Amino acid sequence: MKQFLSVNDVPNINALVDKALAYKINPLADQHLGQKKRMGLLFLNPSMRTRLSTQIAAQNLGMEAIVFNVGQDGWALEFEDEAIMSGNTVEHVKDAAPILGKYFDVLGVRTFPTLQNKEEDYSELYVNQFIKYSGIPVISLESATLHPLQSLTDLITITETFKEKRKPRIVLTWAPHVKALPQCVANSFSQWVNAWGKADFVITHPEDYELDPKFTKGASITHHQDEALENADFVYVKNWSTYNDYGRIYCNDPQWMLTNKKLKPTNNAKIMHCLPVRRNVELSDEVLDNAHSIVTQQAANRVWAAQGVLSEVLNGLGK
Ligand code: CP
Question: Would you tell me how many other CB atoms lie within 10 Å of the CB of residue 71?
């Protein structure tokens, strides 16, 4: 694997899920694979799970991982080509990224969207500039529009949890939030579940919260959350801001927050969320603290997703 930016970089989703689950059973199976290799983990935005799980995954493969909180500790980076840097930015990515390419064998990058300019966010300018100028494999630790390590984790979690012969019914439901959040997790989850093709996939959200059809095509989409939840095996809860009229909050209807009563028509659905979650805004205490919530199992699986991907990237080095 030469890069990991989306499901499109994965030749075989099931094989990668199986590899990650094998690491879960035997974390040190490839403890020498990353020897004498170094990974840079660049964070332009905050993180707990992605940062720690990727560091642990690298360590399990015998690889050194160095975290650099660019957004907090580094020079303010400029990403626009031909920019006249008379404003707040101090260093151009064109100058910084080649240096990172000399320090590291693999680069992980986390960026968020601005939610101001759809075209710019959906062009994935930041991560693409690191790819263009670093000259080494780049792993997305979440980009402006996608969160592939999270989505791989989600499929790992669903695969290990669902043991019936039939397809699971997976529901992605919008939830209220006080801030305008990116569409990344919802886009990416939709893209991966559709590419996986092993689920009956339903997306439910209020009117005018349609996601980019490029990611959702193949799913059933409804504005009726109660209908969507019927017979669900998994309910993935996530807020996102509007995509069409970009980055807005139109609806903060608390009726969209899941309760145990709402979950009654489901098939004892397991509840998923990428975390962090705002309790009693996005998800109620009673749902999060119920045995049906698998959010901790899901977050723990971030290690195995990162390890599976890193292993593939290490195997691809020099090829
Ligand atoms: N889910 C997720 O990416 O968590 P962090 O923001 O803590 O990394």
Answer: 16
